[in-house]
Amino acid sequence: MAVLDILQDWREEGSILHRKTVRIRKVDRRIRRLLNDMVETMREAGGVGLAAPQVGRNLSALVVEYADTDEDPDAVPELYKILNPQIVRTRGEVEGREGCLSVPGFLVDVDRAERITVKGMDADGKAIRIKADGWLARIFQHEIDHLNGILMMDRANRLYTVEEGEDGEPVVTPIGAGHEETEATAGTVAVTN
Ligand SMILES: [Zn+2]
Asked: In the chain, where does DSSP find H-type helix?
């Protein structure tokens, strides 16, 4: 396995981050290797999800690793490797704060479906169907957006910069005027994908 470079050129119009990805027809060694490299890259970066365009590959592939430790402090992170994922069902809507490994230094508040059903293919080429809610559902939606060339900024209700403060704690500052309502989303967790 190898740690790949994560693209952060989201300001460039021609970036692969803005392109819709190509469906994977057949799972071969090359695809399995890409998925494993993406897992290693995600872990190295301390993220909870990563999509192929973020490592410069225009393919419909994502990895997610997340444990809901708010629900269960002993929860073990579950690893997903999904090809050609599609959201086939959604329920509810909830706002939460997200970060992105390709957009460092920013956080956004984004509305996402509360529960989703995702259809796709696993690393063995088998059809899979996953039901997710809460933060896991949010992470999937963020990653599937990447596969369609959509970044979190494209959906942002509010935008924040995040910098490391003198005490090492992150300092989150709203961008623009009239955004004093940051407390409204207090209690949400910033997730980096
Ligand atoms: Zn992202």
From this structure: 29-45, 134-147
